[in-house]
Amino acid sequence: MDACGSPLNRSQSLASGLEKASPTWKPPHSRSSSTLSSPHSRQLIKDWEVIDDLQAEVHPGGESPHDMTTPGICEGYLLKRRKWPLKGWHKRYFVLEAGILRYSKSQQDVLRGRVQGSLDVSHAVMAVNKKSYRIDLDAGDILYHMKAKSHELFYIWVTKLQAHRLYKRNEAAHIHSGLLTALCHCAAGGLADRNGDLSSAGLTDLTVAPGDPPSGNTAVNKKVSAWLQQSHQPDACAQELNRCHLDLSELNRLIKSLQTLEVGQAFTNGDLKRIISIQNLSLEKPKKSKSGKIWGHSRTLSRVEALGMLSSSHLSNSSHASVPSIPDYVYSQLSLPTATLSPDSKKIQQDICSVSMRVLASLKSVHETLSQERQKLQEAWEANNTHQSAEPSGVSNSSQGPPSVTDSAAEYFDASDDILCGSSSEVSDESGLSDGSTTNSEPEQGHVSVTRKYRASIPTVPVGAAPKSTGRRTTLPSPCPDNSHVGLMAILYNNIGKDLARVSMPAALNEPVNLLQRLCEELEYSELLDTANNTADPYQRMVYIAAFAISGYASATFRNRYKPFNPVLGETFECTRDGFRFISEQVCHHPPISACHAEADHFAFWQDQRWKNKFWGKSLEILPTGMVNVVLTRFGDHYEWNKVVTCIHNVLSQQRYLEHYGEVTIRNLKSNACTCKITFVKSRYWGSDGNKNEVQGTVLDQSGSIIHRFGGLWHEGIFCDTLPTPKCIWKPNPQPKDYLLYYGFSTFAMELNELTPDLEPLLPPTDTRLRPDQRMLEEGKVDETDKKKDEIEERQRERRKELSKMGKDHVPRFFKKSTDSCGRDVWITNETYWKLRENPGFSRLENPQLW
Ligand SMILES: CC(C)CCC[C@@H](C)[C@H]1CC[C@H]2[C@@H]3CC=C4C[C@@H](O)CC[C@]4(C)[C@H]3CC[C@]12C
C-alpha cells in the first residue's frame, strides 16, 4: 500500500526535504527548516515538501498591487495515480488554465470537452517530491497524485502550478475587494440603483414577468415558463437576496469601522503567540501537566512551521510580520480572542456576528428554495425522460437471463443506450484511493442514473419501517457539547503518523461510545444475515450478505463531528439484542486492535479491527486492514470480506464530511461457486451530490458472469433489480427525533451505552458501560470527563510499564491469536466469555481493574 509514499509522513519530512535539497532545483517558496526535523521524521520519509507559495503575494487590506496577469496555460500528459490500484498510474492529459486544473484521458478528449475531473489549485495543499517527480494536490474534497516523466516537466509543472495558485488567490482577493466596493456603492445608491445594476448586468433577463410570453416556442420552453409562472418561489428568493444585499452593505460598513478602530493594531507576533496558545498550539515545548498529558502531545508549533504552515518569520520576535501572510487554514483555526478587543470593537464584532447570522439565514433560505425548485425541475425532467424511453433494459435483461459481464451496472439500470461505461474487467481488485475519478475506468453519467433509479424506487418499496421498539432509551441524558472552537490543527499535525485511535483528544471532541461499541453498530442490520440464512439460492444469498456489508457503513452518515473513545487495553463490551449476542475486547494497544465476536441462531460474525491513517493535509484517510467474517448456520458458508477506505474530508474544518470508497470482495471460503464485488464509488465533483455515497455491486458465478447486480447509496439504501422480484433490499432505519443534538446517533447507537439495572450486576467491571469518563460525557459533564479520561489513560500507562518491567506481554482475556486461511494473524474468540458470565459469574471472579 505504501509503495507510492507515505502521505502522513510526507508532511513530517519537510525539513529533511530541505536538508537534502537537490542542487538543481528547490521550490521557491517551500517551507522547510533544517533545524526542525526530528530524526524520526527524517527516517520515515524523505524528499517531500509542502509548497506554501500562497502566502507570498497575499497582501493585507488589498492595498498592494496584485499581479493580475493570467499565467499561461500549461498542458500535457502526466501520470496520475489510479484510483483503486494504489500501485498503478495512468497517463492523463492535464490542462492548467486560470487556476483550474482539469484532466481528460487524452488530448482529443480535451478538445471534445470530456473532462474527467477538475480542481481549483489555489485551494489545494500542494506537496512535491522532486526525486520521484511527484506532485500531490489535496483540495479537501479532491485528491490528485501526479507524476511527471522527467525533471524538466516536473519543474515546469510545479512552477506553473505555483503561478496559477497565486493568480487564483489574487483573483479571489480582487473579486472580494471589488465586491466590497460595489456594496459600498449599493448602500449609497439604494435599492433602485441596485436593480439598475442588475439589469445592466443582464440579470433582468432571468425574471419572467407573469404576463410575458415565453421567450421560445418549443414545448420545453413552454413548460419551463409555465412552471416559472406557477412558482412564486423565485420572487421570494429575489426578495431574500435583496435583504441579503442590504445586510452585506451593513456588514461592509461594520467591518470598515472595526478596521478604523483597530488601526495599527494588527496582530503583532505577541498577539499571535497568545492566540496560538489559547488555541492549544504550543510554541515552546509544553510543560507536562500533572497527568503528563498535553493536548496535541508534546510537539511544538515549530513542527507546524516545519510543515509549511507558518514561516519562522511570523514567530520570530524581531520580525513584525503580520497575520495576513499566514495561509487561510491557519486563520480558520486562529480566531482573535474577544478579550483583546476594546469595548467598542466588541460591540461592532457582536453586530457583525448578528448581521452575518442574518445573511446566513437568508442564504440558507434561498438555497433551500432553489434546491426545491431544482428538485421540481429534475422530477419534471425525469418524468419526461421515463415517458420517452423504452422499457427499462433491466426488466428485459432479467427475462432473457443474466446480463453479460460487459454490461455496466449503469447501463443495466438505465434505459438509454448512449451511456457507456468501462467493462468490469477494468475494475481492479484492490481498494485504495483517491482522486476525482471514479472506479470502473471512470464511468460517466451512468452512476448518477443508477442512483436516480434507486431513488425513484424507494417510495414504492415498503421496507425500512421504523425499528421495533426495544423498550430502551431513545435519547441520551444530555445533548452533545459544541466543539467547533477546539483547534484541531495542532492535534492532528502533532500526531501525524499516529493511529487516530491512539491520539488522545479533549473530551469535547469525543462521542459517548467507544470503538468497541462502534464495532457492534455494524450489526445494526443483522436481520439481513437472517434473511441470507433463509435464502436457498446461493447467488441471492450473496446479495443479502453484500447488503449487510454495506449497511455497516450507514452509521457514519451523521457522525463526523465527534470521535469515539479509545478503549483501554483489556476493556470489554457485551451486547445482547435482536437474537444475537456480541462481545468485543481491546486486545492490543500497539497497534490498537479491537476484536469482536457475535453469535446468533442463524449466523456467527467476527472481525478484528485495525487500520492505518493517511493524512494528506486537508483530508484524513482511514485504511482498515482486518477482514470481516460471517458464517451462516444453515449452509455452513463462511464469507470473508475486506473493508474500504473511509476518508474524512476537510478534517480540520467544520465542513468535515465522511466518504467511503474502494472495492470490497466477498468470498465464500466454503465454496468458490460465487463471489461478490462491491464498489464504493468516489464522488467526482465537489459539492455535487450527483453520485455522492454511491455503491454498486455484482454477484459473479465461478466463470465470472454476472448473476446479480445491485446499487444505491450507502446512506440511503440498496436496490437489487435482478432478484425474482426486483426490490429494495436494505434501507437504514429512520433517525430518532433530535438526533443532531445527540451526536447524530441512531436509536441503536443511543442504546449502546445504556446501563440498565438488570444488566449492571452481570457485567464484568471491564465493560465500557462502567467506564466513568464516558458516562460523564454522556451526562454532559465535559470538564470532569477530561480529568477522568486523563486518569484512566495514566493508569493504563502505568500498567504497561509494570508489564514491560516484568518482561511480560498483555494476554487478552476473551480472544486468542490465530491465523486465517490466508495465513494472516487474526484474533478469534476463546469462547469463555458467556460461560464465565453464566458460571460462576463475573462478580465471583477476579477481574482487572481498569479505572
Ligand atoms: C477530529 C475528530 C473530531 C474527527 C472525527 C473523527 C471520526 C469521524 C473518525 C474517527 C475514527 C473513525 C472510524 C475508524 C474506523 C472505522 C472503521 C471503518 O471500517 C469504517 C469507518 C470507521 C468506523 C471510522 C469512521 C470515522 C471515525 C469515527
UniProtKB/TrEMBL annotation:
Q: Give the top-rank taxon of the lineage listed in the UniProt record for this protein.
A: Eukaryota
GO MF assignments: cholesterol binding; sterol transfer activity
Assigned keywords, A-Z:
Cell membrane, Cytoplasm, Endoplasmic reticulum, Lipid transport, Lipid-binding, Membrane, Phosphoprotein, Transport
**Where is region (Disordered) located?**
1-41, 382-408, 424-480, 761-806
Identify the residues that the record assigns to the PH domain, covering every copy.
71-166
Q: Does the keyword Cell membrane apply?
A: yes
Chief location of this protein within or outside the cell: membrane
From start to end residue, where is composition biased (Low complexity)? 30-41, 424-437
What are the Basic and acidic residues biased-composition ranges?
768-806
One GO term of the biological process aspect? bile acid biosynthetic process
One GO cellular-component annotation of the UniProt record comes to: cytosol
Renumbered to this chain, the Polar residues biased-composition regions fall at 383-407
Q: Localized where? A: Cell membrane; Cytoplasm, Cytosol; Endoplasmic reticulum membrane
Give the family from UniProt. Belongs to the OSBP family.
Output this protein's name.
Answer: Oxysterol-binding protein
Organism name: Takifugu bimaculatus
